[in-house]
């Protein structure tokens, strides 16, 4: 997805734990971060809506570079995953950024009976997350 913000603006946005959780977490869910600024070791907790279930998801920031990406590894939740949010200059050069979201993982042991449900819900969640990110970035940058 392309956002109307320079890569440095995206990096500053991603570094602020409160802003990051505002777009990443489930709407209406209570979220928390162990630090104000994202850094390796920051612990994030937020609820996910998976049909009738609302499990708590806990992830740890394993890598953060404000110029290019943040990597999260889940430690508790329905999916054992490695999530990467990366950004680079977009088609409009340094006035825009292309952001990619990649989730690599598998259902956690207790959720392995519902792989189809998890696939569908995870895909919907990622689309909704991307939409919230775009809307939040547009509001934040005023573009």
TrEMBL record:
InterPro entries, alphabetized: START-like_dom_sf
Protein name: SRPBCC family protein
Organism this protein belongs to: Kocuria soli
């Amino acid at each position: 997805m392309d956002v109307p913000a320079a890569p440095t603006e995206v990096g500053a946005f991603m570094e602020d734990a409160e802003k990051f959780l505002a777009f990443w977490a489930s709407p209406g869910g209570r979220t928390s971060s162990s630090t104000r600024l994202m850094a390796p070791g920051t612990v994030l907790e937020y609820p996910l809506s998976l049909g009738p279930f609302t499990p708590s998801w806990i992830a740890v920031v394993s890598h953060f570079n404000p110029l290019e990406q943040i990597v999260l590894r889940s430690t508790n939740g329905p999916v054992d995953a490695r999530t990467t949010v990366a950004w680079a200059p977009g088609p409009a050069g340094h006035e825009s950024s292309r952001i990619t979201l990649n989730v690599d993982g598998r259902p956690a042991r207790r959720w392995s009976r519902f792989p189809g449900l998890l696939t569908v819900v995870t895909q919907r969640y990622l689309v909704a997350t991307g939409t919230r990110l775009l809307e939040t970035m547009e509001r934040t940058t005023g573009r």
